[in-house]
Amino acid sequence: MLEIAPHVIAFEDNFIRVGASCIVMKVTLDELGEIMRDVFDDESITPKMTMTAEDVEGWDSLSHIRLLVSIEKRFNIKFTNSEVEDLQNVGDLLNSIEAKLR
After folding, report:
1. Within a domain: residue 80?
2. Per-residue pLDDT tens for 11-42?
3. Ordered strands of the 16-18 beta sheet
4. Is residue 3 part of a domain?
5. Rounded to an integer, what distance in angstroms lies between the CA atom of residue 64 and that of residue 67?
6. Which helix (DSSP H) or strand (DSSP E) does residue 99 occupy?
7. How far are the Cα atoms of 14, 20, 39 from residue 68, in angstroms, in the given order?
8. Percent of residues, the chain, with pLDDT higher than 90
9. Distance (Å, whole) CA 4 – CA 100
10. Where are the beta strands (DSSP E) in the chain?
C-alpha cells in the first residue's frame, strides 16, 4: 500500500479509495471474494463492483440466500428485505456491508 497524499491510498492492485473507508472497503472486498468462492465453489471468482448474478455460474435464488446468510454471519450484520431487494450488483452489496460496518 502506498500513501499518495493524506487520506488517499493506492493499493498494489490499483484499488483506490479516498477517505478513512478505503481500508475497510479493501478488506471487505477481499473477504467478500472468499465468501463468494466458498458459496459458489469456484476458486476463480474475483468480485468486481459491476459483477451481477448473471456473471457467476450457479448464482441462482438459493445460492443468493446462502451468499447473504454467509455474509451476515461473517460480518455479524443483518440485511432487511428492502435492502436485499435493492441490490443490483456486487458494488451495491459491498456498499451495504460497508455502511453496516461503520
Report:
1. yes
2. 434 344 455 555 556 668 889 999 999 999 99
3. 2-5, 8-10, 16-18
4. no
5. 5
6. helix 90-101
7. 27, 26, 10
8. 64
9. 28
10. 2-5, 8-10, 16-18
Q: Which residues contact 34 (CB under 8 A, 6 or more apart)?
A: none
Q: Model-level pTM greater than 0.90?
A: no
The grid coordinates listed for 94 are 459491498
Mean pLDDT lowest for which of 53-57, 66-70, 98-102? 98-102
pLDDT at residue 78 is higher than 70: yes
In this structure, is residue 87 part of a structural domain?
yes
Read off the CATH number of the domain in which 40 is found: 1.10.1200.10
28: phi then psi, degrees, rounded to nearest 5: -65, -40
Strand 2-5 to 16-18 pairing: unpaired
Q: How far apart are CA 1 and CA 15, in angstroms?
A: 10
Domain-embedded: residue 14: no
